[in-house]
């Protein structure tokens, strides 16, 4: 990350900025995300979502991050579904503001999260899924050390239909 770009755990006070980012990126994100209710784009919805995700952060099963550039929220990254015991696994999800796409911010943030997951959280593996045609996200994952390990038919309901996803993983300990 650079001096002007940072990744940090979201706070309840970020709800307005997150709602504004979702509104600003509604069309940009629509092909890659589930269909959202109108309320999703409000500060109240985002505030409640942040509080819920911070509860998972407190118990160690999730970590909700905001990506900030020049003080503005320009992306969201989540390590979620963390399972301990013999699995030591997390799922990664992310998006970057359309105005900032293609600048390497997603790759830098994913690499920072990989380092944190290995060095601070002691995880063994992170997995991520992308739509088959989401070449940009696949490039981010591959540049960050992930490898494709499969394809899941009808994996998630995205943009209103069940869609196939390529599955990626990175092993953090040898």
Would you give an account of this structure?
With 174 residues, the protein is α+β, with helices and mostly antiparallel strands. The chain has one domain (5-171): Aminopeptidase (3-Layer(aba) Sandwich). The protein is 32% helix and 36% strand. The protein is built from five helices and seven strands. It has helices at residues 15-24, 26-29, 43-59, 105-119, 135-143, and strands at residues 5-9, 63-69, 72-83, 89-96, 125-131, 147-158, 161-171. It has a seven-stranded mixed β-sheet, sandwiched between helices. Strand 2 and strand 3 form a beta hairpin. The longest helix has 17 residues, at 43-59. The protein starts with a strand and ends with a strand.
**Class inferred from helices and paired strands:** alpha+beta
The rough form would be described as globular
Q: What would the CATH topology be?
A: Aminopeptidase
| Mean pLDDT score | 96
- Count of separate DSSP helical elements: 5
CATH architecture: 3-Layer(aba) Sandwich
Q: Indicate the radius of gyration in whole angstroms.
A: 15 Å
Q: What strand line-up does the widest sheet have? A: 1-2-3-4-5-7-6
What ranges have pLDDT less than 50 throughout 5 or more consecutive residues?
A: none
